[in-house]
């Protein structure tokens, strides 16, 4: 008996064809578009196929391609990217001719001849798959493009993805119908461009531009013949044919692509052989997603921006949708960061407290622009990383707990200027005498108009105030007490004014707890000496209120956000409250804060006006200098980020051994070295004061007094120019 030809064995071969491709549906409706012979199906099969086909969508449901989002600095320079799919769309004329030819030769050599579905390729694949154990695909580039568009739509909308190996006959039929429809709407060049931009090459690298950057450190326009053949070969099996992990398989596949290009007439035999003789020529250049690889050591600022996006309803109804927008929406997130300032801040923070030192000591520098609240720098002495190891952490020392920070750090004496403002608000002058004699406030009732009974009473456990400098428990001018950071002077001033008046001022300047995010509590007067744990960003914003003569501006990181289509998202505008503090009082206060900064911290070695205040908590585990120029305010912090109980004193930090550690010893010089590099780019002229002389001595602290270094009281206190401390007990 004659042997049957397999293609016509209807019980076997055509049964497989019908089951796999759903030809009963296919031929009835796509005959014209596919140029399939109608004789292959008849009667009920064609009728049923037409009905089924009519029910399938003819419009391709599209979403914008997933594109990475970019966080950029104030000048538009990229800091970090976020992506689910690393892709950089380019136009076809930005893709080398070799790349275009390679993908056509290996994936769809009849690309310019068919109308979306290739009948010849389909028939060839049907016969092969029905008569052998190997599988052969028949999808054209148009069909592959359609499938990638569908998968992108499904991913973005949480639907079942129709990836290879999971497609049903209906999925395949829909793909064919959409491919034919698409060819009527798009040119071949548009389809090829779309395909080369959407297709997966490896891992999370999608599109030819991202692939060229990753594997060869070049753009798609620069791909040569060998490069193009390598990439074109990968799309069949991105993992198995990845030249980075499977170079031998990738090289063999490249050579197959080159042979296909010769067969298609794109290249000569000599060109093929020359390319086949080359090595792979890889130059792997990874592009990391997220803040870990942020430029200019801006990982912590990047994390802060990331959290701003996730917490803002402008970017979606919930954090999950906001993250998806960030990963796939092609956002350009323009921020307030100044790259020059950021680099300088990171360098100085690490120079002051080297990250390799393992005692658990940290440093932070954060700068805001006074007139806008724009955050210009945010750096610390560690590397933004989830990995264990010295100098690695994802905790942002500069910000509140809710924004990625820790518990905050005790503010120490940096809160004393706000007590001085309340003193001035009560009708005193900075040269008026404050009773700094009293050191025991057990049972004392502090005026506090906002509390029941108008008083805040200290308990029977007592509150004993100590000063770092001896012989300072005596009446003294207020400015002298602030200059030398005398605790008994600060508490005496509060006792003579009103705790609620003080917290009104700190509230207006935005001072709040790093964890609670609540203002200072007048029921607990220990806040006067800085027991409250705050973030450096909070203190920078608070002092900027003094730097701007009473205007408080909320800290701000975002200036503009647009998506890949050019749509703009609403971001918080500059939000400033004017005249929240008294301008005249700040001018008077500057007559003390300027010499603290310029004489004690800079030691005269700076050529522009600065003002500020040091701070140290009572355990010397948290030290500060917070100060301002005409245009910028910077908080510099050095301390133990692991425990408030672990002191800095008695340790070697940055190569220097410290018996004691005050804000003037490490944080202050760090601030000066940094501001010398960056202040000139912003207003840095005169800081207004009332003309009073430096309150370095008691006599000069009194208006009209001399600044004589022979003054007995000055000699008494000048032995220790780092006179500051903060009692954190209540």
Report the principal-axis shape: elongated
How many helical elements? Answer: 24
Alpha-beta content class: alpha+beta
Cα-to-Cα separation, first versus last residue: 108 Å
Q: Kindly state the percentage of residues in helix.
A: 25-40%
Radius of gyration: 36 Å
Low-confidence stretches: 1-50, 704-730
Strand count: 24
| Biggest beta sheet summary | 5 strands, mixed
Adjacency order of strands in the biggest sheet: 2-1-5-17-18
User: Average pLDDT value?
Assistant: 88
The portion of residues forming beta strands comes to: 5-15%
Biased composition (Low complexity): 699-708
Biased composition (Acidic residues): 709-722
Protein name: Transglycosylase domain-containing protein
Domain Penicillin-binding protein transpeptidase: 364-631
Describe, in plain words, how this protein is organized in 3D.
- With 730 residues, this protein is of the alpha+beta class.
- The protein is built from 24 helices and 24 strands.
- Residues 1-50 and 704-730 have low confidence and may be disordered.
Fill in the keyword field for this structure.
cell shape; disordered C terminus; Beta-lactam/transpept-like; peptidoglycan synthesis; alpha+beta; 730 residues; disordered N terminus; 24 helices; five-stranded antiparallel β-sheet
Give a quick rundown of the structure.
The chain is 37% helix and 12% strand. The protein is an alpha+beta fold.
Please outline the helices and strands.
Layout (H helix, E strand, L loop, with lengths): L12 H9 L1 H12 L8 H13 L13 E4 L5 E5 L14 H11 L11 H13 L9 H17 L11 H15 L4 H11 L1 E3 L2 E2 L1 H9 L8 H10 L12 H17 L5 H8 L22 H12 L8 H10 L3 E4 L3 H14 L8 E9 L5 E6 L2 E2 L7 E2 L15 E2 L5 H10 L7 E2 L10 E3 L7 E3 L18 E2 H6 L3 H10 L2 H10 L24 E2 L1 H12 L4 E2 L4 E5 L5 E2 L6 E2 L5 H19 L9 E6 L5 E7 L3 E9 L10 E3 L2 E3 L8 H12 L19 H4 L10 H6 L13
Helix pairs in contact: 1-5, 2-3, 4-10, 4-11, 6-7, 6-8, 10-11, 11-12, 15-22, 16-18, 16-19, 16-21
GO molecular function, one term: acyltransferase activity, transferring groups other than amino-acyl groups
GO biological process, one term: proteolysis
Organism: Auritidibacter ignavus
């Amino acid at each position: 008996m004659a042997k049957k030809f397999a293609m016509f064995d209807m019980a076997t071969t055509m049964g497989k064809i019908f089951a796999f491709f759903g030809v009963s549906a296919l031929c009835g409706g796509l005959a014209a578009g596919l140029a399939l012979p109608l004789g292959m199906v008849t009667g009920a099969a064609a009728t049923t196929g037409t009905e089924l086909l009519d029910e399938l969508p003819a419009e391709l449901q599209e979403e914008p391609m997933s594109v990475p989002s970019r966080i950029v600095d104030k000048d538009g320079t990229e800091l970090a990217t976020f992506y689910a799919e690393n892709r950089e769309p380019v136009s076809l004329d930005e893709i080398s001719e070799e790349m275009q030819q390679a993908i056509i030769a290996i994936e769809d050599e009849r690309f310019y001849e068919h109308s979306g579905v290739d009948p010849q390729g389909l028939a060839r694949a049907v016969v092969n798959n029905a008569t052998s154990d190997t599988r052969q695909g028949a999808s054209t580039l148009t069909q592959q493009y359609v499938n990638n568009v569908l998968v992108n739509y499904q991913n973005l909308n949480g639907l079942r993805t129709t990836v290879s190996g999971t497609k049903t006959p209906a999925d395949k039929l829909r793909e064919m119908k959409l491919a034919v429809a698409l060819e009527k709407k798009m040119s071949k060049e548009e389809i090829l461009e779309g395909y080369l931009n959407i297709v997966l090459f490896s891992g999370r690298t999608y599109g030819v531009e991202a692939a060229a950057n990753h594997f060869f450190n070049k753009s798609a326009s620069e791909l040569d013949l060998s490069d193009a053949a390598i990439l074109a070969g990968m799309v069949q099996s991105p993992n198995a044919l990845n030249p980075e992990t499977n170079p031998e398989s990738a090289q063999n596949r490249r050579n197959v692509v080159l042979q296909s290009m010769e067969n298609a007439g794109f290249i000569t035999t000599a060109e093929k052989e020359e390319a086949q003789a080359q090595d792979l020529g890889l130059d792997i250049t990874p592009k990391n997603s997220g803040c870990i690889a942020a430029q200019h050591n801006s990982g912590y600022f990047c994390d802060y921006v990331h959290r701003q996006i996730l917490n803002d309803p402008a970017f979606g109804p919930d954090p999950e949708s906001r993250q998806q927008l960030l990963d796939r929406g092609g956002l350009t997130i323009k921020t307030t960061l100044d790259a020059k300032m950021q680099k300088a801040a990171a360098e100085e923070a690490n120079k002051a407290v080297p990250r390799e030192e393992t005692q658990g000591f940290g440093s932070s520098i954060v700068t805001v622009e006074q007139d806008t609240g724009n955050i210009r720098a945010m750096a610390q002495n560690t590397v933004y990383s989830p990995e264990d190891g010295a100098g690695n952490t994802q905790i942002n020392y500069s910000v509140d707990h809710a924004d990625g920070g820790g518990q905050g750090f005790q503010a120490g004496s940096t809160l004393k200027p706000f007590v001085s403002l309340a003193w001035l608000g009560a009708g005193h002058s900075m040269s008026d005498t404050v009773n700094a004699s009293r050191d025991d406030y057990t049972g004392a009732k502090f005026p506090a108009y906002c509390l029941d009974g108008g008083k805040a009473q200290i308990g029977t456990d007592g509150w004993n105030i100590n000063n770092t400098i001896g012989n300072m428990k005596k009446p003294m001018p207020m400015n002298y007490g602030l200059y030398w950071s005398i605790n008994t002077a600060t508490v005496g001033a509060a006792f003579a004014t009103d705790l609620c008046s003080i917290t009104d001022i700190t509230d207006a300047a935005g001072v709040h707890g790093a964890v609670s995010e609540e203002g200072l509590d007048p029921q607990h007067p220990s806040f006067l000496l800085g027991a409250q744990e705050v973030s450096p960003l909070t203190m920078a914003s608070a002092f900027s209120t003094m730097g701007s003569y009473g205007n408080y501006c909320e800290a701000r990181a975002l200036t503009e956000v647009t998506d890949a289509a050019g749509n703009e998202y609403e971001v918080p505008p500059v939000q400033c409250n004017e005249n929240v503090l008294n301008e005249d009082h700040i001018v008077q206060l500057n007559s003390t804060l300027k010499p603290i900064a310029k004489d004690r911290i800079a030691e005269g070695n700076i050529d522009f006006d600065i003002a500020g205040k040091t701070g140290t908590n009572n355990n010397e585990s948290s030290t500060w200098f917070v100060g301002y120029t005409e245009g910028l305010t910077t908080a510099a912090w050095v301390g133990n980020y692991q425990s408030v109980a672990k002191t800095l004193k008695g340790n070697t930090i940055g190569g220097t051994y410290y018996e004691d550690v005050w804000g003037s010893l490490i944080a202050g010089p760090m601030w000066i070295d940094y501001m010398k590099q960056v202040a000139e780019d912003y207003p840095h002229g005169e800081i207004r004061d009332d003309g009073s002389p430096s309150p370095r001595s008691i006599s000069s602290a009194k208006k009209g007094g001399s600044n004589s270094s022979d003054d007995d009281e000055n000699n008494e206190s000048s032995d220790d120019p780092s006179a500051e401390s903060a009692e954190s007990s209540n």
